[in-house]
User: What shape does this take?
Amino acid sequence: MAKIQNISEIHPTLGFTEFDIIEKYRKSFHESELGRLHSVFPFERMAKTMGLSEQRLGRRNIFSPSAKIALMVLKAYTGFSDRQLVEHLNGNIHYQMFCGIMINPSFPITNYKIVSAIRNEIASRLDVDSLQEVLASHWKPYLDSLHVCMTDATCYESHMRFPTDMKLLWESLEWLYRQICLHCRDLGIRRPRNKYADVAKSYLSYCKKRKRKASRTRMLKRRMIRLLEKLLIQRDEIHREHGTSLRYTQDYQKRLSIIRKVLVQEKEMFVGKKVRDRIVSIDRHYVRPIVRGKETKSVEFGAKVNNIQIDGISFIEHLSFKAFNEGIRLKDCIRMQQKLMNVRVRCVAADSIYANNANSCLLYTSDAADE
Assistant: This one.
């Protein structure tokens, strides 16, 4: 006959408890690469500098200001999408420890859009200069060669399809025609007549061709420009007659103004004129082509950044979505490094583009002062 014991008598004989398991997870986290990465970031100071609030995101407010920044660092480290990040966060206790949160397995995070909401909140409060000062002061005791300034420019590419005039025109036509159809449906009026169906059929046939003649490309481009101009006129007529009955969002008005600029630029390029600040994407209208002259990619699309490197760690000195000459920014690089590290720069390493007369005089003056 089996002997029955109380649970209170059995409990002390167990080899482990729930608390012991969590402590072992914490120990393994600090010894892991993810734990070492967490130790080099002053998340509390960063959140205080950015002024992040404890506002609620969703039904449960589990993300503190420091946890929001940690979540963005974790996303960059893993390379996951928003949905994948939430799925791994629910099941990986090391990821939860990195963010400083504990998720109840019975109530996991189901709304993956919370990651996008946190990203937008951080982006609206992000000040690169002040944040880099916090990081530099935190990392300074662990850095060597603070007097050596290394600088170079690079392009942080945006993930977007390679832009062409035909793709840009078709995206503009497709969006504008869809909006006209929605307006006519909401107002209960007949859709205006246009050649959208014919142009759509011709564009589909054009895309299927492996080799496209320049004459056919120019002919189709002319048709698309004329159709886009006509659709804008038809849309303006609907607004003029029924504008009081329609409601436009801020995104709608911004997209419409971008399409108008695209039409102006495409008409100028069609007649052989050069265009400044060319739009290459309707969704990311701020992106500009950056000509770098590389062997693999002569043109890149994204933000051009002038960086300084201190003992292997890069800091952003200047960021712009428009092309700029980094060769004239050497003084700003030296000034920025001396401000961050509070150490006078004595050695500079840079490309030949920085070797101009203004920078040569700067380096000569610096050497003379040292002597």
Remarks:
- The longest helix spans residues 214-242.
- Residues 1-8, 10-16, 365-371 have pLDDT under 50 and may be disordered.
- The radius of gyration is 29 Å.
